Amino acid sequence: MELQIAVTMAYHLDPADVPLLTLEVARMPGQRLLRGALKVPKAKLKRMAGEGGLGKRVWAMFDGDRLDLRYDAEVQISRPDVVLGPMAAMPIHSLPPEALSALRPSRFCPSDLFTDFAGQQFGHLAGGEKVAAITDWVRAEIRYAAGSSDGGTTAIDTFLSRQGVCRDFTHLLCSLLRAANIPARYVSAYGPDVQPGDFHAAAQVWLDGGWQLLDATGMGSASGLAVIAAGRDAADVAFLETSHPVHLIAQSVSVARI
After folding, report:
1. What's the confidence (pLDDT) of residue 53?
2. Domain spans in the chain, listed from the N-terminal domain onward
3. 17, 216 Cβ separation under 8 angstroms
4. For residue 205, what are the contacts with CB-CB under 8 A and spacing of at least 6?
């Protein structure tokens, strides 16, 4: 599958801020960037590796208090959809460092608070079957509701309210997986079936010795998502980071199949 991506953004910033952007498609196995261009008028761009070495972050250094940008890309997805059932989980003592760190609680994924629930609900399962059951539970129990959460909503809040957006689905999924001793990390991505069009959140889980891409909302799949970056939770992969509050002027995210 090939995807065409177009992002435009306009924000008022504090003049002292240097925004950090995470919105370029990552170069990684399973997806090939055919074309990509990030344009920020009158800005000097400085790239650095993303969290865990996946993707890029970009400092946009410019004078003024208004950020305008456009990002265009075409990406070819060759990653197959995941069949979880037959996949095996690794014992904790055999995990590589990148997977071991994805077992720990984080700000929006307090997985240590879900240990008892995960054990009672999914303790009889193992490996891919456990991951599939947890993913299905989140999809069945949580109602997608635009505007039902905000930047401070944690997985506990979502668990109690039983509603949220893609960010909340992913935080809860990662929390339950980590509580079940299965490494999971938060992924920012582009998907053609995301409604309304926006930056999307999915998850990666460590099975069969590698990261497998999942989407608890059902709006995407491994074969149809273009990964941007991954981290412990949304705080690690925010598309725009600043030291001070910003004011949205306009934003558009368009993803289409070619």
Report:
1. 87
2. 2-78+239-257, 92-236
3. no
4. 131, 177, 182, 183, 184, 211, 212, 214
Q: Which two tokens mark 200?
A: 């999307």
Mind giving me the DSSP string for 60-88? EE-SSSEEEEEEEEEEEE-PPPP--TT--
**Going by CATH, does the domain composed of 92-236 fall within 1.20.120.450?**
no
Return mean pLDDT, the chain.
96
The two domains 2-78+239-257 and 92-236 share their CATH topology (first three levels equal): no
Q: In this predicted structure, what is the pLDDT of residue 11?
A: 98
In the chain, which stretches have pLDDT less than 70?
A: none
The pLDDT, as a whole number, for residue 52 is 84
DSSP string, 112-131: GGGHHHHHHHHTT--HHHHH
* Distance between CA atoms of residues 202 and 188, nearest Å: 6
pLDDT at 108: 98
Q: Which tokens hold the place of 221? A: 């799949």
Q: Domain 2-78+239-257 belongs to what topology?
A: Immunoglobulin-like (2.60.40)
Give the Cα separation of 165 and 140 in Å (integer): 14
Q: How far is CA 162 from CA 155, 172, 176, 234, in A?
A: 10, 10, 14, 19
**CA distance linking residue 171 with residue 150, whole number of Å:** 13
Write out pLDDT tens, residues 92-131: 999 999 999 999 999 999 999 999 999 999 999 999 999 9
